[in-house]
Design a protein that fits this description.
The protein is mostly helical and 140 residues long. The protein has 7 helices and 2 strands; from the N terminus they run ααααββααα. Strands 1-2 form a two-stranded antiparallel ribbon.
Length: 140
């Protein structure tokens, strides 16, 4: 990474290539839904609270990145690369969620996790995970 200041989008593109936070959200949801069966655009749109044309456009972007296969009027399936990325995104989500729940002594921190997870490097996620493994459980 070059030295200097960037916009949030600039940092994201440097860190993740062409995957934006929005693309990561879609890919993570496709991965989650794909574990339960096939994924249709309408179901994906409902799960993410967006309109089907928006989900369809994002699916085309993910297909262009080689992360999914999406034939016209068909099901969305992950490529091998998409499965690996999706698994990492779910893992990152879980690690950040555990950290925030530990800090805040809550059961769920979904909104906070969704807001910050995209900005953590894999190294930071791994170090958070190591940190959490060394903690004693907090009593409530």
């Amino acid at each position: 990474m070059q030295e200097g200041f960037y916009t949030m989008k600039g940092y994201t593109l440097l860190e993740h290539g062409q995957l934006t936070a929005s693309m990561e959200d879609y890919l993570e949801m496709i991965y989650r839904m794909g574990e339960e069966g096939y994924v249709r655009i309408t179901a994906l749109a409902q799960a993410l609270h967006v309109k089907p044309p928006s989900a369809s456009k994002m699916a085309a972007n993910l297909r262009g990145q080689g992360l999914i296969e999406f034939p016209k009027y068909g099901y969305i399936t992950l490529t091998e690369w998409g499965r690996r990325m999706g698994a990492y995104l779910v893992h990152r989500h879980q690690v950040v969620g555990r950290l925030l729940c530990t800090i805040n002594q809550t059961e769920s921190e979904l909104e906070e996790v969704e807001k910050i997870e995209h900005f953590l490097s894999p190294r930071t996620v791994a170090n958070i995970e190591k940190f959490l493994e060394g903690l004693e459980p907090l009593s409530k």
